[in-house]
Amino acid sequence: MRDLGTLGGPDSAVAAVNERGQIAGISFTNSTPNPTTGFPTLAPFLWQNGKMLDLGTLGGSFGVSAHLNNRGQVVGFSDLAGDLAAHPYLWDGGRMTDLGVLGGTFGLANWINDAEEVVGGSTTPDDQAFHAVLWTHGGTTDLGTVDGDSCSIAFVNNSKGQIVGQSFNCDGSGEPRAVLWDKRGPIIDLNAFVPPGSDLQLVESHFINDRGEIVVAGVLPNGDEHAVVLIPCGPNDSEVCEDHSDSRAALTQANPAAAAQTSTNVTHGRLTPETLAALRSRLARRYHIRGFGTPRK
């Protein structure tokens, strides 16, 4: 066990490690709270060759690293100057680039694959909603939501360009849904593949590997949470193994109530300062930052 140290402050935390042994994380750089954030200055770092490198920020006093790929490229989000807005970034070879947002004030990058494809999410104009986003050399793509939902977020993408995440209502009503974005077709509600008669609701996709196997969080009606793995159909699998080429039909068979909801084409609520703060707080649990997301004065 090796203590990686800090950037000068009291605490640090690790976000990810790649195949080269490089480590991305976050660290306080001092112990003095900033008046705008209520936190000491927090910066992303890259640990390599026995040293912790401060990656800086986009001008603010609050920056977070979320993931790095095997090329040593780091993604996350950072406050802009004044700490009133935060944007996703890509750090590569000593330079931090603002990836941009969908017109709102807050966005974050959660994952980057070795093809430099970045996924995460952003608020839309006037911070009315939060949508999953794909950033590539070709630009910024709003990945949208499941029909009937108003918010979504992307967590992980694999080398094949498949992306997993969650679609949900911005106002917190209803059940969130684990989803898959695939280059071969539109967004897929993974509840389409829950066996008929099962009470399991797949609420969040946590990870997808290069074989297309997806780790999902599932919830039973009594609130019990189960870990679930979805495995792509193979050539020797039986006919009961569902193919996602007709996901809407599969959804109708597996969960008629969910199928009816997806056809309403109605969004539920918009983000308010309170619901945006709650979303930021939920995302902060992935970064081990206590108090992050609390409305700023």
Overall description:
With 297 residues, the chain is mainly β. The chain folds into two domains: 1-98, no CATH class; 131-234 and 251-288, no CATH class. The chain is built from three helices and 19 strands. The protein has helices at 247-254, 256-262, 273-284; strands at 12-17, 23-28, 42-48, 51-54, 59-68, 74-80, 86-92, 95-98, 107-112, 118-123, 130-136, 139-144, 151-157, 163-168, 177-182, 185-189, 201-208, 214-219, 225-230. The strands form five sheets. It has a four-stranded antiparallel sheet, with no helix packed on it. Helix 1 packs across helix 2.
In a few lines, what is going on in this structure?
This protein has 297 residues and is mainly β. It has helices at 247-254, 256-262, 273-284, and strands spanning 12-17, 23-28, 42-48, 51-54, 59-68, 74-80, 86-92, 95-98, 107-112, 118-123, 130-136, 139-144, 151-157, 163-168, 177-182, 185-189, 201-208, 214-219, 225-230. The longest helix has 12 residues, at 273-284.
Order of helices and strands: EEEEEEEEEEEEEEEEEEEHHH
**Largest beta-sheet details:** 4 strands, antiparallel
The domain tally reads 2
The coarse overall form would be globular
Number of β-strand runs: 19
Straight-line distance between termini: 40 Å
Tell me the radius of gyration.
Answer: 20 Å
Strand content: 35-45%
Average pLDDT confidence is: 87
Multimeric state: single chain
Helix/strand structural class: mainly beta
Tally of alpha and pi helices: 3
Lateral arrangement of strands in the main beta sheet: 1-2-3-4
Q: What percent of the residues sit in helical stretches (DSSP H or I)? A: under 10%
Uncertain parts = 244-267, 293-297
